[in-house]
Write a structure and sequence with these properties.
This protein has 466 residues and is an alpha/beta fold. It contains 13 helices and 19 strands. The longest helix has 25 residues. The structure holds S-adenosyl-L-homocysteine (SAH), iron/sulfur cluster and FE3-S4 cluster. The site of iron/sulfur cluster has 10 residues, from helix 6. This is tRNA (N6-isopentenyl adenosine(37)-C2)-methylthiotransferase MiaB.
Length: 466
Amino acid sequence: MNKFYFLGGRMIIEELHQHIADKNLKYWLQSFGCQMNAHDSEKIESMLEQIGYIKAQKEADANIIIYNTCCVRENAELKIYGKLGYLKTLKKKNPSLIIGLCGCMMQQDIVLNTLKEKYKFVDMIFGTYNLYKFPEILKTRLETGDPVIDIWDTHKEIDENLSSLRKYHFKACVNVTYGCNNFCTYCIVPYVRGRERSKNSEAIINEVTNLVSEGTKEIMLLGQNVNSYGKTLDPPVSFAELLEKVSTIEGLKRIRFMTSHPKDLSDELIDVMSRNKNICKSLHLPIQSGSDKILKAMNRIYTQENYLNLVKKIKSIIPDITLTTDIIVGFPGETEEDFEETLKVVKEVKYLSAFTFIYSKRTGTPASVMENQVPEEIVKKRFNKLVNVLNEISLDYMKSQVGTSVQVLFEEKSKSNAETITGRTDTGILVHAPASEDLIGNFAYVKITNAKTHYLSGEIIKEELQ
Ligand code: SAH
Ligand code: SF4
Ligand code: F3S
């Protein structure tokens, strides 16, 4: 029945197309969240283009503006409220402008009530579970002229396999799981994305096979915790099995995946990674904190020792692997000693890079009502110290790469230098090299001549145009 419903969605797209196409109407779509959020935006963008909207060069030129929101930290939400002030002025100048808000932030009642009360000029509000209903929501808005608010509080069985409009033709994201069951005590994601569900493995293989036949060279498999993939499928399929199947797809040059929760990373997965050349030798393995006391309070289910043993095992089997991580500073109750434990892990693991976050209180999560919230000045000090240590480690590693030759998949023109293009190694390192734009979407070997904290640069020594 639900697939039938989605077919209805296709019919609505066609109907809208008849009214919208040829009118030179422009859209502006902005993502404010993680890779999952960005990938959802690609799906909305694909629907907008199928309807007949054209991408605007500037936000102010758009006839329809959609923000795909995030609420993982408070500043993500503040950013949206800030931008809503700007949208209000745009709408005043152009009353026919259509404004839509969607994504994780919309799944919170408190946000919804604020929007209904104070931001009445917003035309469409939808959430994370009913993205595919966007054409229907837009149609209702166009026909009635009234605001449309359509939020579901849970996931329903639907065909979530919407096509997406990709920024790069040579790389693509594919969802493997949706939602999360882990309930880390600081995190709002399980409340706004719902319970974990795995996409059928055949559907994933088909999707990747199609993408590769269209020229995709690099695939990113996405989930909040990819390692728990497939447990509820019938028959169950492990993430390692899925990854191995994906790696056999002819023509697929690189496979990445994120995120890996350390508690669920299996020996089988390390084995599959070590045996298959096209699985990138980089792993994002969020530690969050190095202190056992804090890890317990966060409900992360592993200890520092478990984590370090896991890293040791991974490095012994895949010696050239690079590791990246997420770290939260200032979780309630974090003492100087707890923070020192985090620094200890950082120095021992020697991460290539890390996403570092100042703990942000999220209403509705268990941590938000914990005692001993850490004062801001102390957290900021710790945060700066952590970033400095991470940067030193990263620079040391980058310097060790000078003189080596690395294979790079070039992705885009450099933002700072018109003569230079940038890409990534298999281990995820950003590399700049002077070369023609024609190399974008292709592999080349680069001899590294210079190292900075967050990128390498060098000369192209061999191109692999294909
Ligand atoms: N599922 C992924 C990441 C989801 S959110 C995982 O478990 O790794 C991305 C990161 O945001 C988290 O890893 C965490 O470091 C950070 N984060 C989540 N909630 C936060 C909060 N309330 N305050 C600060 N950082 C937070
Ligand atoms: Fe949030 Fe934890 Fe789930 Fe990651 S694993 S999304 S941090 S609850
Ligand atoms: Fe991603 Fe933010 Fe939602 S991190 S899952 S967009 S709350």
